[in-house]
Design goal:
heterodimer, A: 223 residues, alpha+beta, Beta Polymerase, domain 2, Poly(a)-polymerase, middle domain, 2 domains, 5-stranded mixed β-sheet, 5 strands, B: alpha+beta, Alpha-Beta Plaits, 4 strands, 20% strand
């Protein structure tokens, strides 16, 4: 399965492709790291894969590689299903998380967020075009990049999706216009959400964001 | 500015946003709103909205650069990556400084390769001098997914091969992060000597 900008349909030259290998619960991450590099090499034409690196200690363990020059991230996600996984499996279901460790839930997060996001947008075509415009704008204005303290790809996508929800019949250009005005006047630190936050599900020690113990330093302190 | 992911467990995607970066975002939203209004009125074109930032050209009067340096490419990747992930903590510290109104990080680092012949030249390269930069190896930018222009780490790998067999040459790899500073009116920025600042940073960063 794919997630990230590829899944949202907003890739450009130089984008990487984020993928997740979904496996039934009897397959472990160790199995993934010991068998998958070979499988990938066998499936690809000779010389197509370069710079294959195993990163089992990453925040979400993964294999990174270049496939004919394109950066590919291959994550591994075990789910709470014992038998063969159907192609049309719905990744947004909470049942898939039962019995998983916090880390395993985290590995599934990217796919779950992307799928959920697309399902909450009224018109995917409009969303895509508008998000492409916002991505271009934020790149040209140098205000993108989570690591530097700017919103990252997911954050911009959620913002555009929210505006799409507010104007379900609007064209992409109208969404872009409304995007600026709505967010400029937004009553921060009121959170931007696409649906009600699920506080009922409890798995492991996973913390769900809430406004009372908001960890964002900028939301409480300065505004 | 909390922006929350929709899937369980819902998390805040903008945990890293600081007072300064939020201020910059708000200013850009306002600019975007004004330009799109004009576009709708037929008084401006879309290309106006996508005009390049002016961070280096007219954005700020004062800049701070954070330079990481290594003598091998293998060591440089994790080292510069670690510092890159720490730049925002320096921003947060700068925001506490009484003279600083705004500290804006540039959202890319610039990786350069230098050929140095002695200790003195190595020190200079580490201090930000471009005198010994290898002209045949292009400057690369860090930060992925932002590829708008030339950005590649492949050149650096080639650079490794270009490491001349000449034993007198030391290759120095540097990544520079730039921070634009806006000061409160009438305030001066007093810091220890640049060298000292390097050590100071190291303490505040770790």
């Amino acid at each position: 399965m794919t997630f990230g900008s590829f899944k949202l349909g907003v890739i450009g030259p130089g984008s990487d492709i984020d993928t997740l290998v979904v496996a039934p619960s009897n397959i472990t991450a160790d199995d993934f790291f010991s068998t998958f590099p070979e499988i990938l090499q066998k499936m690809a034409p000779e010389g197509a894969i370069t710079e294959l690196t195993l990163k089992p200690d990453a925040f979400a363990p993964l294999i990174t590689l270049k496939y004919q020059g394109v950066d590919l991230d291959v994550l591994f996600g075990r789910i709470a299903i014992h038998n063969q996984i159907k192609k049309d499996l719905l990744m947004t279901s909470q049942d898939l998380l039962r019995g998983l460790t916090d880390q395993e839930v985290r590995s599934l997060n990217g796919v779950r967020v992307a799928d959920e996001l697309l399902s909450l947008v009224p018109e995917q075509g409009v969303f895509r075009t508008a998000l492409r415009a916002i991505k271009l704008w934020s790149t040209r204005r140098a205000i993108s990049g989570n690591i530097y303290g700017f919103p990252g790809g997911v954050a911009w996508a959620i913002l555009v999706a929210r505006v799409c929800q507010l104007y379900p019949k609007a064209t992409a250009s109208t969404v872009v216009m409304k995007f600026f005005r709505i967010l400029e006047k937004w009553q921060w630190p009121m959170p931007v959400v696409l649906k009600h936050i699920d506080y009922n599900t409890r798995i492991g020690n996973l913390k769900v964001w809430n406004s009372k113990v908001c960890l964002c330093p900028h939301s409480r302190k300065y505004i | 500015m909390p922006i929350i992911t929709p899937a369980y467990p819902s998390m805040c995607t903008t945990h890293n946003v600081t007072r300064s970066t939020m201020q910059v975002i708000m200013k850009e939203l306002k600019r975007g709103g004004n330009i799109t209004d004009q576009i709708m009125a037929g008084k401006a074109q879309w290309k106006e909205l996508f005009k390049k930032h002016t961070f280096f050209t007219s954005g700020y009067k004062y800049y701070l650069s954070v330079i990481t340096a290594s003598t091998t490419n293998e060591a440089h990747l994790p080292w510069s990556g670690f510092i890159e992930s720490r730049v925002r903590f320096l921003i947060q510290n700068l925001e506490e400084h009484e003279s600083v109104a705004l500290a804006r990080p540039f959202n890319k680092g610039y990786t350069r390769v230098h050929r140095c012949h002695n200790e003195e030249e190595i020190e200079k390269a580490k201090g930000g001098s471009l005198e010994y930069q290898a002209k045949d190896i292009a400057t690369a930018t860090t930060g992925h997914g932002l590829a708008a222009g030339s950005s590649s780490t492949g050149d650096l790998v080639n650079g490794e091969q270009k490491t001349d067999t000449d034993a007198n040459i030391t290759m120095v790899y540097t990544t520079t992060h730039y921070i634009g500073l806006g000061l409160h009116e009438g305030k001066l920025l007093t810091f220890p000597q640049p060298r000292l600042l390097n050590t100071l940073n190291r303490y505040t960063l770790t």
